[in-house]
Specification:
Blueprint (H helix, E strand, L loop, with lengths): L1 H38 L3 H9 L5 H10 L14
């Protein structure tokens, strides 16, 4: 019975460390995605990302595939 208690301490520490790392990962990606949603006036995505905690998966999917892309404006130069 004593060996079970000794194993619980290190295992619990690893679990807490894992939770902290995942939380920081989620916080960074969620912050970036919420910023981009707000700037692009995409309210549905903003609410979805704000509510659902998916360990950074939903914000990454939004950033890679669903954010509005800026159009490049090519200026024509006048020839003299």
């Amino acid at each position: 019975m004593t060996s079970d208690v000794l194993l619980l301490g290190p295992l619990f520490a690893v679990f807490i460390f894992f939770i902290i790392v995942i939380s920081l990962w989620e916080l960074v990606w969620k912050g970036i995605a919420l910023w981009k949603c707000g700037r692009n006036n995409q309210l549905v995505w903003f609410i979805a990302i704000l509510i659902f905690n998916t360990a950074g998966i939903l914000p990454i999917v939004y950033i890679l595939f669903f954010q509005k892309k800026k159009k490049l404006i090519v200026k024509k130069q006048k020839k003299k």
